[in-house]
Design brief:
The complex is a heterotrimer of chains A (about 300), B (about 1050) and C (about 120). Chain A has helices spanning about 10-35, 45-55, 65-85, 105-125, 130-160, 165-170, 180, 185-195, 220-245, 255-275, 280-300; one strand spanning about 60-65. By secondary structure, chain A is mainly alpha-helical. Chain A is globular and about 55 Å long. Chain C starts with a helix and ends in a 13-residue tail after the last helix. Chain C has a single domain (about 1-50, about 70-110), classed as Helix Hairpins (Orthogonal Bundle). The chains are: A mainly alpha (about 300), B mainly alpha (about 1050), C mainly alpha (about 120).
């Protein structure tokens, strides 16, 4: 635990900058990999930059009201906050970001900040598809997050702390000190849960990206959409950072960081290109039957 | 000093005198009768004062001593009973005026003879004389039954005479053999002669006893009495129920005094079975007088059972038996008289007293008297009775008394609910203004309260009327004519003023609860300024509830605690009953609450170990043999109030149907009473094991399941207030879980929940209540798009749901953070998993709440509605500010509590470190201010960025949305709201089967079916009743042989 | 002799009860109860009777001094007298009731008067 100093603000912005760019490239890369599996060419690696600039540049904007307007702001603030409340690199004063504000629990609960705000914004648009998307998304999320929460708690019990840097510290020294090897049940539960939060098949019925526009962002366009796209670059990485810190020994420098994030992300993509889509009640049951027991075992046996 | 013989001679002489009058002088005869009754009442009053201090005095007749003459004994109990009998006679005469004038002077003579014979039964010490008075009672009763205009009454009277013939035979044979065995008929003489030591004497005694008990109307030999109650003139029923029953009960006690304590179980068992059976059968009654009749039989049975307990009650015998008997007498007299001014004999016909606040108040007083609610005599009496029973180990009897009382609560409060909530069929059929009759009812009510005061004065445990909060609450009864706003100001001033006076003396935990109750109550009461008019009945109930709550927090002894518990229960019941559709819910509330209260009573009585109360702080010193049971009973009792799963079914309806400003009170504040009890229990008793089961572990599971099922049920509600109510079940589950963790942070978390839940649940209920008032519905799918019309309500709900869900930066997160730290040291992991599942589910219902009401499509019929009334918004905005405050500086409220809790866990560190801005535990840390600032800055920056790139955004119309191939134009079809979580229901709906509701429904159905089946033994045939009596005698005889 | 009276008394009581329980006609029942009452009175007298003594009347035959030795106990007799008086009263009242009931329904069958039940 450290105290706030002003220098942390530029440092945090630097983290944000690095992660944003990494996210833009990584997402395009993953899209490309998925396309290649389907024997398509896929997008160019810089496509996300173009999309983002275009959307921020679009001038035709309408709004359905104040919450609609604020929705994307909530969403992006949630993503940025999640990134910044967690130390990115272990042992680095520079990239420990704003983690003085709170521990693991803060990160866990801040995940919902963006989701809630987004849902409110989508709700005010008045579009039934948005509401249906929120209903599906929240339903799936409640069950998908459960194994993750159990795994996190198991890890916290294992290391007897709720401070992220303490957890990473305990995993240093050897590959076999990683939670992956010391508490495989928790990691298994968390990784299954991770699939549910990545909006990829088989758990992507919420957004259904391939079909006509449905899901919470239905009414969002131009700069709103740009904000949400920005979040979509940052948020998965912020989430992966937590997973990496808790289960895979964290990262002490950027190259290791990039590699680990890439591999963890790849896991979700890999599963996504292999399996077809679940309906919401199917995915709820799937998490309940396969992932939750692992999580329960993890906290009982730890 | 007037000789007791006067009480026999005066009515006899008057009766003889008026029968000589000519037929035209009915009025004069009536006046003389009235004067005689008044005179006798005054004389009896004089005796009460005389014998208050002196011991019993015997009066001899015929110039010789017994056994050659009859003697009367006069002492305090006799004097009181005579007063009761004569006052009953006096008021009944007043009430009967028209009937008496119609029937003529001879009926007045019969009335006088009846009262005289009842007095004689009380006074005489001679068995044969007792027989004579009993026969006189029978004959005069037979005559008075004919006063009724009901043409079924003669049949009832005949049935009574048949039964009394049998009684006569038994009694006479018993008397002659008793005389043969001992040579005396004097009761004291028979005692000296040890009547029951010989075999023949035993039989003789048995016959006398059973004959007298048969007059008490024991089950099953009491069908005739019910028929009389149903058909007789109500004012005669008063005499029959109050005066006759009291007299024969006293006679039974006298007869029992001849024999040793080994005969007492007969009275106990006959009494308790009568009590249970009568109250069970009363459940399926729809005729008011018959129901009252059942209730009378039950109460006589209870007193008979108490007579059987005189061996353990000792000095308290008279106090206990008198308390129950007199409370019953006053209540039953009042109720029968009330039935006399109501035409129509169905319970629903009593709806005509709607709009007569005083009659409703009287009715409420009478049922409180019957059940034994504070501050009435039966409350003190039952408390001591239960404690004595527990002390002597008579648990089956204890359980049956409480069970019977609960049945009684069931039908009496159901009746009360019907009276207040059902729509009257037609225009009022209340009898025309009859001031005379109403005066009688008013006087009876006053006597009831006076007796409450008297019993308080006599109570060694504490005088409820000496508690300032209760007096303050009762004073609102007198002020009820004032406009609502003035009363509201008074109530607020009272709450805040009391807090200002008292807060210095509270410990930190009490301080938290007291602030929530008093200051919190005052804030919610602000919403009451919205009401114009007088709002009759609201303030007495509200302030009564707050009085009970604060007395609960201040209580030091188990007696004070329990009294406060019942007071707050009663207050909140009346409050809940005020809601529009709340009749069934208020009933289940009072049933669960009083059921819980009886468990608490049992727990305390066990803990007292034969004493009459226990210091709450001494609960920890209860011997290990009973401690787990004490813990179990108390915990179960408290959990009825926190609506733990299984005991929760009353809550959703009660909270949802309550008035707009009542819901926040009963949800945000009242539920905390149960938490306070549990906290107190755990603080003093700690962990307890029952048959190897760790009880706190059980609580942990109950808490976790309540949290899960409460939340799960909430997401499927269409009614916004029901949703919030179910959410309360979940929230209380969390708090219970925290307490049951039995560690420092768990308790701190529970305290955090006390504060947080109060703030956000009160706020949400007020906002939703405001919306419901404007839209005229509570169904969420009928609303939608209200954000633009009711922005302030929206803000309150938004802040509320963020806080409930625990999302940073608002105060709910603090609760969650403490929770995670608390479970780090818990030894039980599985319930934690359940609780983890419950957490995210809260998002579902919270989002649904805000979405379907404020977002989405505005309905056509709502386009013109306005923001909620000003006075509903004011407290909401205060709550918003409070939530922000608690979110930023939780230490203000919690730091001292944290320290205070520390003393209960001296061996663990466990506390929090509050230094600086950051709050840290052994495991992690949290800086509320930093979180708030970071989130705020981030949010503001991004918003500024969006405003910059999107400065030209223009608001579009409602239906301007992307839609393929069709144009939406109806909000009803475009607003996705109904069955919002259909997939969730498909996946997890099996968890929401109403198993608990079904269970309790089955229990009540079974009770009703049993009631309806077994009451059919009363076939109405006089010969069957005679057989009942003979069978009863045989059964009791066989039982007594086994003694 | 005393035993015979006693037995007769109990017989009458049982007979009366039996009659009161099997006859549905109210008048029959009243008569049965009178029979039972008589039986009770017989029992009272039988129990109180002392063989070889005279009536409890203090006259020339019995002096106050030896009254305790010679007369039988007056109390049971007083009881019987009272009981008879009361019995007459109750019987009269029951007959009055029977009259009233007959007026309302035109029947004296007790099983017809069961509107009040349960």
């Amino acid at each position: 635990m450290q105290q706030f100093e002003w220098i942390q603000i530029p440092y945090s912005l630097l983290t944000l900058f690095i992660v944003l760019n990494f996210g833009l490239l990584l997402n395009a890369l993953m899209a490309k990999i998925a396309a290649r599996v389907g024997r398509r060419r896929g997008i160019p690696i810089y496509q996300n930059y173009i999309d983002l600039i275009k959307n921020y540049g679009l001038r035709t904007s309408i709004t359905h009201g104040i919450m609609f307007y604020l929705g994307p702001v909530f969403r992006l603030a949630g993503g940025v906050g999640l990134l910044l409340f967690v130390p990115t690199l272990y042992g680095s004063e520079m990239f420990s970001n704003l983690s003085f504000a709170g521990d693991l629990i803060l990160a866990l609960y801040f995940v919902f900040f963006g989701a809630l705000g987004m849902a409110l914004g989508a709700g005010e648009s008045g579009h039934p598809h948005a509401a249906i998307g929120v209903s599906r998304g929240l339903s799936q999320m409640t069950m998908a997050e459960l194994p993750f929460a159990l795994a996190v708690f198991s890890v916290a019990l294992q290391y007897d702390t709720l401070t992220i840097s303490e957890i990473v510290k305990a995993q240093q020294g050897s590959l076999f000190h990683w939670t992956l090897f010391t508490n495989p049940l928790a990691v298994a539960a968390a990784m299954l849960s991770f699939l549910g939060s990545m909006m990829r098949p088989p758990f992507d019925v919420v957004l259904a990206p391939q079909e006509i526009p449905i899901g919470p962002p239905t009414e969002y366009h131009s700069s709103y959409l740009a904000l949400m796209q920005t979040n979509r670059m940052i948020f998965p990485i912020a989430k992966i950072v937590i997973i990496m810190n808790l289960f895979f020994g964290g990262a002490t420098n950027w190259p290791i960081f990039f590699a680990k994030v890439f591999l963890i992300y790849l896991f979700a993509v890999f599963v996504g290109v292999v399996f077809p889509r679940f309906r919401v009640e199917q995915s709820i049951r799937w998490f309940l039957i396969w992932a939750v027991p692992l999580g329960v075992l993890a906290i009982v046996l730890v | 000093m007037v000789s007791p013989l006067f009480i026999i001679a005066a009515p006899l002489g008057t009766a003889f005198f008026i029968s000589l009058f000519s037929k035209e002088k009915q009025r004069l005869a009536f006046l003389i009768t009235l004067a005689a009754m008044l005179l006798m009442s005054l004389v009896s009053l004089h005796w009460v004062f005389t014998y208050l201090t002196s011991g019993p005095v015997d009066y001899y007749t015929a110039g010789t001593l017994p056994p050659f003459s009859i003697n009367f004994r006069m002492a305090l109990p006799e004097a009181c009973l005579i007063l009761l009998i004569n006052l009953t006679g006096l008021f009944s005469t007043l009430f009967l005026k028209n009937s008496l004038l119609r029937m003529g002077r001879l009926s007045m003579a019969v009335l006088l003879i009846d009262i005289m014979s009842l007095s004689g039964i009380v006074l005489t010490r001679d068995v044969f004389n007792l027989f004579v008075f009993l026969e006189l009672m029978a004959i005069s009763t037979g005559g008075l039954v004919l006063l009724s205009e009901d043409n079924r009454a003669p049949a009832a009277g005949l049935k009574y005479l048949i039964v009394s013939q049998l009684v006569t035979i038994l009694l006479l044979i018993g008397i002659i053999f008793a005389y043969h065995a001992t040579g005396t008929l004097n009761i004291d003489g028979l005692t000296v002669a040890s009547l029951t030591h010989s075999t023949g004497g035993k039989l003789a005694f048995f016959l006398i006893l059973i004959a007298v008990i048969a007059e008490v109307k024991p089950f099953p030999a009491n069908g005739w009495a019910l028929d009389i109650y149903e058909s007789a003139h109500p004012s005669f029923s008063v005499i029959f129920s109050v005066a006759s029953s009291s007299a024969v009960l006293f006679a039974t006690a006298k007869i029992l005094s001849i024999a040793g304590p080994e005969w007492l179980p007969i009275a106990s068992n006959v009494g308790i079975i009568t009590f249970l059976a009568a109250n069970l059968f009363a459940l399926s009654q729809t005729n008011d007088r018959r129901l009252l009749g059942y209730s009378s039989l039950g109460q006589s049975g209870l007193v008979l059972a108490i007579i059987g307990q005189q061996d353990i009650l000792g000095d308290h015998y008279l106090y206990v038996a008198g308390g129950i008997l007199l409370a019953h007498a006053v209540a039953k007299a009042g109720l029968f008289w009330m039935s006399g001014i109501i035409k129509g004999r169905e319970l629903t016909d009593w709806t005509t007293i709607q709009g007569h606040p005083f009659l409703i108040f009287s009715f409420a007083t009478f049922i409180a008297l019957l059940i034994g609610l504070p501050p009435f005599p039966a409350f003190y009496a039952k408390w001591e009775l239960i404690h004595s029973l527990a002390g002597a180990g008579r648990f089956p009897l204890l359980a049956m008394i409480l069970l019977g009382t609960l049945l009684e609560v069931g039908y009496l409060f159901r009746w009360f609910g019907i009276i207040l909530k059902r729509k009257p069929d037609g225009p009022g059929v209340l009898q025309k203004k009859r001031h005379r009759k109403r005066m009688v009812i008013a006087a009876t009510t006053a006597v009831g309260w006076g007796m409450g005061y008297l019993w308080g004065t006599l109570s060694p445990l504490g005088h409820l009327f000496h508690a300032t909060p209760l007096l303050f609450a009762l004073s609102f009864l007198l002020l009820d004519w004032l406009p609502a706003r003035i009363k509201n100001s008074l109530a607020i001033a009272g709450l805040v003023g009391y807090f200002a006076l008292q807060y210095a003396g509270y410990n930190p935990m009490q301080l938290i609860f007291a602030s929530v109750i008093l200051i919190g109550g005052a804030v919610i009461l602000l919403a009451g300024f919205d009401n114009t008019g007088r709002r009759i009945g609201f303030y007495p109930a509200t302030v009564l509830m707050f009085a009970g709550l604060i007395q609960l927090i201040e209580a030091r002894t188990s007696f004070d605690f329990f009294a406060a518990w019942e007071i707050l229960t009663v207050g909140s019941y009346y409050l809940i009953l005020r809601g529009k559709q709340s009749e069934p819910h208020a009933l289940s509330y009072i049933l669960f609450s009083l059921g819980g209260a009886f468990l608490i009573l049992t727990g305390f009585s066990l803990a007292a170990q034969g004493g009459y109360q226990i210091e709450l702080q001494m609960l920890g010193t209860v011997p290990q043999s009973v401690a787990p049971w004490v813990f179990l009973f108390l915990a179960l009792g408290f959990m009825t109030k926190t609506a733990a799963i299984g005991l929760h079914i009353w809550l959703p309806g009660a909270h949802a149907e309550a008035e707009t400003d009542v819901s926040p009170m009963v949800s945000g504040i009242l539920l905390k009473a149960g938490l306070y009890g549990l906290m107190l229990l755990l603080m003093t008793m700690g962990k307890q094991q029952l048959y190897g089961v760790e009880l706190t572990h059980m609580l942990l599971w109950i808490g976790a399941l309540s949290a899960l099922l409460g939340n799960l049920l909430a997401i499927f509600q269409e009614d916004a207030k029901r949703l919030l109510a179910y959410s309360s079940i979940g929230q209380m589950g969390y708090a219970l879980f925290g307490l049951a963790l039995m560690n420092h942070l768990g308790w701190l978390m529970a305290m955090m929940f006390v504060i947080n839940h109060y703030i956000y649940k009160s706020m949400l209920f007020l906002s939703i209540g405001g919306v419901a008032r404007r839209t005229g519905t509570k169904e969420m799918y009928r609303m939608g798009g209200l954000l633009k019309l009711m922005p302030l309500s929206f803000i309150a709900v938004l802040i509320g749901i963020i806080a409930v869900s625990g999302v940073p930066p608002l105060s709910g997160f603090g609760g969650r953070w403490i929770f995670y730290n608390a479970i780090m040291t818990s030894e039980y992991r599985l319930p934690i998993a359940v609780l983890f599942l419950a957490g995210p589910i809260a998002f579902l219902y919270l989002f649904r709440l805000i979405h379907t009401i404020f977002l989405g499509q505005l309905k056509d019929e709502h386009r013109r509605i306005q923001e909620a009334p000003f006075w509903l918004i004011v407290p909401q905005m205060i709550f918003v500010a409070l939530l922000m405050g608690v979110a930023l500086v939780p230490g203000v409220a919690l730091r001292r509590v944290d320290h205070y809790i520390g003393q209960f866990f001296p061996n663990e560190g466990g506390g929090l470190n509050w230094s600086g801005m950051t709050i840290s535990s052994d495991f992690g840390y949290w800086n509320p201010v930093a979180i708030m600032v970071v989130v705020g800055v981030m949010f503001a920056t991004l918003l500024a960025w969006l405003l910059f790139v999107n400065r030209q955004a223009q608001v579009v119309k409602q239906f301007n949305i992307v839609y393929a191939a069709e144009r939406p134009y109806r909000p009803e079809t475009t607003h996705f709201a109904w069955n919002f979580y259909a997939p969730y229901r498909k996946a997890l709906g099996f968890l929401t089967q109403p198993l608990v509701t079904r269970f309790w429904q089955t229990v009540t159905d079974l009770l009703h079916a049993a009631s309806d089946l077994f009451r059919r033994i009363y076939t109405g045939n006089g010969q069957v009743y005679a057989i009942h009596l003979l069978a009863f005698v045989v059964m009791v005889y066989l039982y007594s042989k086994g003694l | 002799m005393v035993l015979v009276v006693l037995a007769a008394g109990f017989m009458l009581i049982l007979l009366g009860l039996y009659g009161a329980l099997i006859h549905r006609n109210i008048l029959h029942m009243i008569v049965s109860f009178s029979v039972a009452d008589t039986g009770v009175n017989l029992v009272l007298i039988a129990v109180g009777y002392m063989p070889g003594r005279t009536a409890p009347i203090l006259d020339s035959n019995v002096s106050v001094a030896d009254a305790v030795e010679r007369i039988i106990d007056p109390v049971p007799q007083a009881l019987v007298l009272t009981a008879i008086v009361i019995g007459v009263g109750v019987t009269a009242l029951m007959l009055a009731y029977a009259y009233r009931l007959y007026q309302t329904k035109g029947t004296l069958d007790i099983s017809k008067f069961t509107e009040l039940k349960w």
